[in-house]
Amino acid sequence: MRRSSLLLVAGILLLTGSLSVVTATAIAAPPSNDFHRWAATPPLGWNSWDAFGTTVTETQIKQQADFMAAKLKAHGWQYITVDIQWYQPTAKGHSYEEGAVLAMDGFSRLVPAPEKFPSAAGGQGFKPLADYVHGKGLKFGIHMMRGIPRQAVKQNTPILGTHLRAADIADINSTCSWNPDMYGVDMSGPGAQAYYDSLMQQLADWGVDFVKVDDLSRPYDQNRADIEAIRKAIDKTGRPIVFSTSPGETPLSAGAHVNRHANMWRISDDFWDRWELLLPQFKRLHDWTPYRTAGAWPDADMLPLGIVEFDRPVRFTRDEQITLMTLWSIARSPLIHGGDLTRTDPFTLSLLTNDEVLAVNQDSANNRQLFRTDDGLIAWVADAADGGSKYLAVFDTRDADAAAGSRPIPVELAALGLQGQVQVRDLWSHTQLKPVSGTFKPQVAPHGARLFRLTPNTDSSASKP
Question: Would you give the DSSP letter of residue 70?
Answer without folding.
Answer: I
